[in-house]
Design brief:
Layout: E1 4-9, H1 19-30, E2 37-42, H2 49-54, E3 58-70, E4 73-77, H3 95-106, E5 111-118, H4 130-148
Parallel strand pairs: 1-2, 1-3, 3-5
Antiparallel strand pairs: 4-5
Helix pairs in contact: 1-4
Length: 150
């Protein structure tokens, strides 16, 4: 297995926005003892995550999506932009911008995939909605397949 990083983004105090963090917790249990995988979570992508990405061969970004239909899952490769200029506004750093920063600062470009699932409820509140809780295992299963393929 390649050296992998799983980065989950979301706010657990915004109901289903905590979906990725919940998935990460299940993945940590599933891959307990697997030294090739590192797990981290945060509210949003941060410039500091470029250092983590630079140490990996593969990065799996986990996220909840308000633009996908609830329960739908999307996965796609993320690559640095051709100009490799990172967004200077760290308040709007996205996954591609994080990889751009990783490439520019550390001269590393790990393979990366974003795995997102549509949430039902993004209101203030602790815990996932019942609908998203019911769909959580599907996201974990897809993430497991992606990681096992590395």
């Amino acid at each position: 297995m390649k050296k992998c990083l799983v980065l989950a983004y979301g706010n657990p105090l915004r109901t289903d926005d905590g979906l990725a963090v919940a998935a990460l917790e299940r993945l940590q249990k599933r891959f307990d003892g697997e030294t090739a995988i590192e797990f981290h979570s945060a509210m949003q992508p941060l410039p500091e995550h470029a250092a983590l990405c630079s140490e990996q061969q593969f990065v799996l970004f986990l996220d909840a999506s308000a633009s996908l239909q609830p329960g739908n899952i999307s996965s796609h490769r993320i690559v640095p932009a051709n100009d490799s200029q990172p967004n200077q506004n760290t308040h709007s750093l996205d996954f591609q911008g994080l990889l751009n920063l990783t490439h520019r600062v550390y001269e590393k470009s790990p393979e990366a995939v974003c795995l997102a699932m549509g949430g039902h409820d993004f209101a203030i509140g602790k815990g996932l909605s019942p609908e998203t809780t019911a769909n959580l295992e599907e996201m974990v299963a897809v993430a497991t397949r992606i990681l096992n393929a590395q």
